[in-house]
């Protein structure tokens, strides 16, 4: 179990929908500090969160997840002045715009990867940090393909690949930062929007999705926090249909014995 009591949490996502509901649950877990980095100001949401737990310090920064990593470093230098340290980084920024592939990939994948690369040194035990947990909030169509939202699905597949790669013991055994992902199923705030299919052939499906029965943002947010509390390094969870499911990871490719031996050998063995 991952105990959130007293933790310093940094949430990168617009404070509405799933992110807001997740933050509400976090505020009931006796966290010490919550930093919210979002693209637009939402003082009503911040006030709502503060009313849940007045003793928890909440900080807000306007943040563009697609900015260059050099600019991110400047932002997080300022964040760390207020936060002191980060125990939990939650990446929840998301965009589904099949007409703007660059923006979709940059928001969902590239921006998330740059954010993680920027924050990791503050958390890394080898660099003076205390370790911690990185949570990537993604989608079930990062596990299975979507014939309608192809660009969005591709970006979410990337999130899963990045999560599993970064959770490898090669890193975790040294930096002490666990990495996990929560894949949300169809959720009301997402399907309420006007969505465009990647190709016109799928538009009728996208239109019908707006009326489909989906889980609420509050239930999804609760299950994201449940997954965090039950987390272990490398886990991938599905939060869908009001429930939470830990998926069994599958490996399609296995290294040849000779290749595996070579990769695991040290330089001295190689020189011999």
TrEMBL record:
It comes from the Eukaryota. It holds the Pfam family adh_short. PROSITE patterns: ADH_SHORT (PS00061). GO terms for cellular component: cytoplasm. Keywords: Oxidoreductase. GO terms for molecular function: oxidoreductase activity. SUPFAM superfamilies: NAD(P)-binding Rossmann-fold domains. Signal peptide: none annotated. PANTHER family: 15-HYDROXYPROSTAGLANDIN DEHYDROGENASE [NAD(+)], ALCOHOL DEHYDROGENASE-RELATED. Belongs to the short-chain dehydrogenases/reductases (SDR) family. This is Alcohol dehydrogenase-related 31 kDa protein. It comes from Drosophila yakuba (Fruit fly). The gene is Dyak\Adhr.
């Amino acid at each position: 179990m991952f105990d959130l009591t007293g933790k310093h949490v940094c949430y990168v996502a617009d404070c509405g929908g799933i992110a807001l509901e997740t933050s509400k649950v976090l505020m009931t877990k006796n966290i010490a500090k919550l930093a919210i980095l979002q693209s637009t100001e939402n003082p009503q949401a911040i006030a709502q969160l503060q009313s849940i737990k007045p003793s928890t310090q909440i900080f807000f920064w306007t943040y563009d997840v697609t900015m260059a990593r050099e600019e991110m470093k400047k932002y997080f230098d300022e964040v760390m002045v207020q936060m002191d340290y980060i125990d939990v980084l939650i990446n929840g920024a998301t965009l589904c715009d099949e007409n703007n592939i660059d923006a979709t990939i940059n928001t969902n994948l590239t921006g998330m990867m740059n954010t993680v690369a920027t924050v990791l040194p503050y958390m890394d035990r080898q660099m003076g940090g205390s370790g911690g947990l990185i949570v990537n909030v993604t989608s079930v169509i990062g596990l299975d393909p979507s014939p309608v939202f192809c660009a969005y699905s591709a970006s979410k597949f990337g999130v899963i690949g990045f999560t599993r790669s970064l959770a490898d013991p090669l890193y975790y055994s040294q930096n002490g930062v666990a990495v996990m992902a929560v894949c949300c199923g169809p959720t009301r705030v997402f399907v309420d929007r006007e969505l465009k299919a990647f190709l016109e052939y799928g538009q009728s499906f996208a239109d019908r999705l707006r009326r489909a029965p989906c889980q609420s943002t509050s239930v999804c947010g609760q299950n994201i926090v449940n997954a965090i509390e039950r987390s272990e390094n490398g886990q991938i969870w599905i939060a869908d249909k009001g429930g939470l499911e830990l998926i069994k990871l599958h490996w399609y490719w296995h290294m040849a014995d000779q290749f595996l031996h070579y990769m695991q050998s040290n330089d001295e063995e190689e020189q011999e």
